[in-house]
Amino acid sequence: MPESPRWLVLQGRLGDAKKILDKISDSKEEALLRLADIKEAAGILPECNDDVVAVPKRSHGQWRYQGSVWRDLILHPTSTVRHILIAGVGIQFFQQTSGIAAVVLYSPKIFQKAGITSQSHKLLATVVVGFVKIVFILVATFLLDRIGRRPLLQTSVGGMILSLTSLGMALTIIDHSDTKLIWAIALVVASVLAFVAMFSIGMGPITMVYNSEIFPLRLRAQGTSIGVAVNRVMSGTILMTFLSFSKGNHDWWGFLLLHGVATAGWVFFYTLLPETQGKTLGGRLAGGLGGGKTFPP
């Protein structure tokens, strides 16, 4: 894993940054454009093209002054920065509150409630869940730059909503049935696998990718940190409360809640998250609002 080109430029190491940009860009011209954008953000003059240059220090109120970063990000953000922060924190929030941690980590309990009592069968089903998660994450790596962030994310969350619906319905039918329904048990297993697959193809990988793409350079570290903190807090909250919602014969309550959150997330993504595929950092911060467009100025 190479050093970040942006970090190298901030250290004045333009030559090293250009070598890495040449490797990760589609063409030499794209690499030069990216380098020019980074140099401009760092305050390095365009004509400075030596391998090692001096990086100018910024005065009070510029991005090197940490107090101004928090001010521009939290206290007095522009409409663009506010939109970016809401999008970045929102996608982290919905990634965890849509229930992936609960479904994956508590899958043995879900299978047990469905009627799979054999330890070996529960273990096998749990292993298959992990295998499906890995396979579809690999699929996502091939689709992310071909399809785009928005379509893949909306498809992913839509599939999660349908999977949660079928999972909750199947568990409810099993709870109210006096006989062992093989088709309902199969539906539970299929719903769990479908949920994990749909999460892994979009919501899972896109969350961190999107956060790394939307924040301007001077706000990126703090903005991403806020998003990750929200992600971890919500993950812990879901894990500590999910079993309470699904105790006894009320499994549908827990999945109804997750279904509602996932639906709200789909609306949030459709309304507030623009497409970032193929856009430079500067290009993401100009243009229209939503609907697959870029962030407003």
Structure description:
This is Polyol/monosaccharide transporter 5. Pfam families: Sugar_tr. It comes from Actinidia rufa. GO terms for molecular function: transmembrane transporter activity. With 297 residues, the protein is mainly α. 73% of the residues lie in helices and 0% in strands. It is built from 13 helices and no strands. α5 runs antiparallel to α10, α7 crosses α8 and α8 packs parallel to α10. The two termini are 33 Å apart.
CATH architecture of the largest domain: Up-down Bundle
User: Which runs of at least 5 residues are low in confidence (pLDDT < 50)?
Assistant: 59-65, 282-293
What's the overall geometry?
elongated
Spatial separation of the terminal alpha carbons? 33 Å
Mean pLDDT: 83
CATH class of the largest domain: Mainly Alpha
Key features of this structure:
mainly alpha; single chain; 297 residues; 2 domains; 13 helices; MFS_trans_sf; transmembrane; transmembrane helix; membrane; Growth Hormone, Chain: A
Describe the structure in brief.
This protein has 297 residues and is mostly helical.
Task: Summarize the topology.
Layout: H1 5-10, H2 14-24, H3 28-42, H4 66-75, H5 79-97, H6 100-105, H7 107-114, H8 119-147, H9 149-175, H10 182-214, H11 220-245, H12 251-272, H13 281-284
Helix pairs in contact: 2-3, 5-10, 5-11, 5-12, 7-8, 7-10, 8-9, 8-10, 9-10, 9-12
